[in-house]
Specification:
The chain is α/β, with parallel strands linked by helices. The chain is built from 17 helices and 18 strands. A hairpin with a 5-residue loop joins strand 14 and strand 15. The radius of gyration is 33 Å and the shape is elongated.
Length: 603
């Protein structure tokens, strides 16, 4: 199964493109004349877009497969850099990236120390940031390396499997660093290569050791998402993605993630994310176990996959939160607000919380439906202050229950509590704006490319390059699918500019799409000029399918073109020129016969 994130929203882009094409036909018009309000009014609602993708990923992710990868790697024995076991592990990772992605991931071996770097290409063919997840493939001598760092590699492989089932706008990198235990050498080499190639990283999720939890910590603090809060690092560069992991873990998983600032974490410089920070990449975070103080297997022969101290729920939850964070980030749509829907059932006295990470000032609107019981809704700020609340009786209708302007960045909480005496069934939908890269342009009003593409049309086909990028057509080709029909024409007429559909017959009128293009007729209508005569019949009989000529009589047989169409006759051939005379003769005969009969009766 392959799900194209671009194509799921393609109809929305087609409509925007059509507006822009139309505006270009009017001499004084330009893109500026199409306001965001006008675009929003005509766009079909696709509010479940992100929800559907996330739900599909949740159903696909397998904690069992994560554990199997850890078992495979650690049963190979310890794999320090330079050992034969290290080579076997590297080859296993190379093979798995290709097999699990069905060949979609391009695998490279980079650096002198041979780190494995897999790239899932995005469909957006411009310079754009990338997302990355990684762990190290080597271990210390005599340690099987199940936790350190089979966990990181296993999560990389499982995310490669499920994320490669989709097509995303941006590249996603899946990395296994070598020689980490020798001083972060492999990742340092690749970070240097990335910097030289000017690869921009939107976020790097580093995973290194997860299986030992702090059993005395609160349940929602069992996995650490350590974010970069070094000097000059903004919320959006790292902290936001740690909050996003907590949001995904809470809303879709078991709520085990704790965002933690790097200044409160003593081992911040001791894993591969640090190599990228040294190269100037601040957009990094580090997923790490909360129970390192009780991890007696660290760098020991007991670091085996079947160590009874290990809790594999931690790896599954980390894979879930990182995978959903990537999917949520990359599934955003142009000109559509973030919209997330949740539903549940609560018994009397029970409550459920939902997190939402805010990156810009926005109106935060929550609609809800519920029945059978009284319910209370609350909105809580990142510093745990209640912002708004409402108590409602049982209702079956959707209504706005929270509508607040939020100006602070951070993780907000919506609480749903059953305050009645009956079971509560509910659905909530939250809508809000975001600005992930903090450039003061709402995410709904831009995409992952420079705004200059909105004023460019390199192939002069009537589609600005920005629209071509969103449609995945070529900004350099007037006809991206080489079917003789220009991209702009196909977009205007609801055809597919990425598929050779020239010989298809969209309206099933007997004229192919290409023939309709050549004639200038509407491929979506059997009667382009609305004169009650099919385009195909008019073309076959040398009439004009672009104007109403139904009342004309080119063959002078006293039958209009419409009459001829209804009789299935040739409007240019007077097949029955004697018919008028026969009709007149018949009428005269009838009159004479009537006179004769009348005369006889009078006698």
């Amino acid at each position: 199964m392959k799900i194209n994130i671009g194509n799921m929203a393609q109809r929305s882009v087609y409509i925007i493109a059509s507006l822009i094409i139309i505006s270009m036909v009017v001499p004084t018009a330009s893109l500026d004349f199409v306001s965001s309000q006008e675009v929003t009014e005509i766009l079909p609602t696709e509010e479940n877009h992100g929800n559907e993708i996330i739900e599909e990923l949740v159903s696909q992710l397998s904690g069992h497969l994560v554990k199997q990868h850890i078992k495979e790697l650690s049963e190979n024995g310890s794999r320090p850099y330079g050992s034969y076991q290290n080579i076997i592990a590297r080859r296993y990772i190379e093979s798995q990236l290709q097999v699990l992605s069905e060949g979609k991931i391009d695998v490279s071996i980079l650096g002198t120390h041979k780190s494995v770097v897999g790239r899932l290409p995005g469909w957006l063919d411009v310079n754009a940031p990338v997302l990355m997840v990684g762990g190290h493939l080597d271990s210390v001598q005599d340690a099987p390396g199940a936790n350190d760092d089979g966990t990181g590699v296993a999560i990389v492989l499982e995310l490669a499997r499920i994320l490669s089932k989709f097509e995303w706008p941006l590249d996603i990198y899946f990395c296994a660093w070598n020689a980490e235990e020798n001083g972060l050498i492999g990742s340092s080499e690749v970070a240097d290569i990335f910097a030289a190639q000017e690869i921009e990283i939107l976020q790097y999720f580093n995973v290194d050791m997860l299986l030992v939890e702090d059993i005395e910590a609160p349940p929602d603090e069992r996995i650490l998402a350590v974010y970069n809060n070094g000097h000059g690092v903004t919320y959006h560069e790292s902290h936001y993605f740690a909050d996003l992991m907590r949001m995904m873990s809470n809303n879709y998983g078991q709520n085990l993630i704790l965002p933690l600032p790097s200044t409160s974490f003593g081992a911040w410089t001791r894993s591969d994310h640090w190599s990228f920070i040294v190269e100037g990449y601040q957009n990094t975070l580090f997923a790490f176990e909360s129970g390192v103080h009780r991890d007696s297997a660290y760098h020991q022969p007991t670091d085996a996959w079947d160590n009874p101290m290990y809790n594999y729920t931690m790896t599954e939850e980390t894979a879930l939160s990182i995978g959903l964070s990537i999917a949520f980030t990359l599934s955003r749509q142009y000109d559509v607000l973030t919209s997330l829907e949740y539903n549940g059932v609560l018994q009397p006295g029970e409550s459920k919380q939902y997190y939402f990470a805010m990156t810009t000032e926005t109106d935060f609107v929550v609609n809800a439906t519920w029945n059978k019981s009284e319910v209370e809704f609350k909105l809580v700020s990142p510093n745990e202050a209640e912002i708004a609340g409402t108590l409602k009786d049982s209702s079956g209708n959707s209504e706005i229950i929270l509508n607040e302007t939020l100006s602070d960045w951070g993780l907000y909480k919506v609480l749903v509590e059953n305050t009645g005496i009956n079971e509560l069934e509910y659905t909530i939908t939250a809508r809000y704006e975001s600005d992930v890269n903090n450039d003061n342009v709402p995410d709904s009003q831009q995409f992952w490319f420079d705004d200059s593409y909105w004023s460019m049309d390199q192939d002069a086909d009537g589609l600005v390059d920005a629209i071509e990028l969103l449609l995945q057509t070529s900004p350099l080709l007037e006809d991206s699918d080489f079917d003789t029909m220009p991209d702009a024409y196909e977009v205007q007429n609801d055809l597919d500019p990425l598929e050779n559909d020239a010989e298809y017959d969209l309206d099933q009128d007997g004229l192919s799409n290409l023939r309709e293009f050549e004639l200038g007729t509407n491929p979506n209508s059997v009667d382009s000029d609305q004169d009650q005569m099919d385009d195909y019949w008019e073309v076959q009989h040398n009439l004009d399918p672009l104007r109403d000529d139904s009342m004309e009589d080119p063959d002078g047989d006293f039958l209009t073109n419409l009459d001829e169409y209804l009789l299935d006759r040739d409007p240019h051939l007077n097949e029955d020129i004697h018919i008028p005379f026969l009709v007149v003769g018949s009428l005269i005969g009838i009159v004479i016969l009537g006179l004769v009969v009348k005369q006889k009766r009078s006698h």
